[in-house]
Specification:
With about 160 residues, this protein is mostly beta strands. It has a single domain, classed as Lipocalin (Beta Barrel). It has no helices and eleven strands. An eight-stranded antiparallel barrel has the order 3-5-6-7-8-9-10-11. Strands 1-2 form a two-stranded antiparallel sheet. About 5% of the residues have low confidence.
């Protein structure tokens, strides 16, 4: 029986400014790679359905967990969203399909703003988007019909 360990050496540079002098210190850090690196998904890879959401809407708490037998205070079983590479997409809810436009607000893909083409357009912002192998998480906020909503969401591929 044999095993392998990969070792990577990383040199971190700390810059310290003391009056008019700049000092750069090198620190050598050894990193042992034990687990494989997870492949991350992209926002445009698929349609995304809600797995779990916690929301506060006009001072009322709401919760949904896909497949839960109890505890849900609203239903997202038939809701999902699709972001296309060309910055268009579709939002599916309540048996209707709505077109949307979207764009990243940050170069690291951690923030998105999209507009759903309801009769009165809805602007939704996602922040702190984290991309994992099989899901995404983010915080979301919007105002609809005078009600402010703030949510934390986990979505999975449809």
């Amino acid at each position: 029986m044999t095993s392998c360990t990969k070792e990577t050496t990383i040199i971190e540079k700390d810059t310290i400014v003391e009056k008019d002098t700049v000092i750069v210190k090198d620190t050598i850090v050894r990193v042992d790679t034990v687990a494989p690196v997870k492949v991350k998904v992209k926002l445009t890879d698929c349609s995304w359905k809600i797995d779990e959401i916690r929301s506060v809407q006009s001072n009322t708490n709401y919760y949904y967990k896909r497949g839960a037998s109890s505890g849900n205070t609203f239903n997202f079983d038939n809701e999902y969203i699709k972001f296309n590479i060309d910055k268009t997409g579709e939002y599916f809810a309540d048996g209707y399909t709505y077109s949307l436009t979207w764009d990243y607000l940050a170069s690291d893909s951690s923030q998105v703003r999209y507009t759903v083409a309801y009769p009165k357009p809805l602007i939704v912002t996602w922040e702190r988007i984290k991309y994992y192998k099989d899901y995404i998480t983010y915080s979301e906020y919007y105002t609809k019909e005078g009600m402010n909503t703030l949510s934390t969401v986990k979505r999975i591929p449809k």
